[in-house]
Amino acid sequence: MTKITAPKYDEFYAAGGWKYRPDFEMKFLGEMTAAAGLAEGSEIVEIGCGQGFHAKILHDLGFTVTANDLSQEGIAFAKTNYEGPDYHAGDAADFLSGIEPESVDAVFIRGMSWFHYKFTDDRPLAAKRMMPRIARIVKPGGAILLMIKTDYTGTETAGGVYNHLWTDFPALLGDYGTITRMTDWRGMVLNSEEDGRASGHGMSVVVKTEGASGG
User: Fold this and answer.
1) pTM for the complete prediction?
2) Is 117 helix (H, G, I), strand (E, B) or coil?
3) Which terminus has fewer CB within 10 Å in the chain: N or C?
């Protein structure tokens, strides 16, 4: 997987990468971290941080941020342009394995490839296999914050990228704590599959953890 994805993202980030609206992203992450009950100075790990844009926002919101991405190009850009977080380039599974159990207050994940495929996928780097490794590093009473693009149709692209249903998220995350917030990327609360289909605009989930979970 490293040999396939790293060159792709290095090239993408070298060309400019994703474009975001800073004011909107700051407000949205502020709402997510507030829903998670994270106090100023809380330690947040971001996996799949890309060029460091959201890691920097979390840092500016007052959190201590450690961020990882597979792309050397993305991490180099982050270190140059978004000072504050502690950045690490390399495989996310290896990165997570190097963190002590129950040692951080939260993990933040936005658009990471592990979560863009069916949550029932049984590949070694599928979301359902990696969730225990993610939950393992979070303190009891901490949080997992996840943002994933979906239109809630259950459709799949030719490359295997899947548009998750609303029900997929409680099914994946319910074993790791209590879901305290589910909204679309505009902040609309999503309480059902019908809400998801009416929105069609991404999922944001906050899970309050109840303790370490296997892996």
Assistant:
1) 0.91
2) coil
3) N
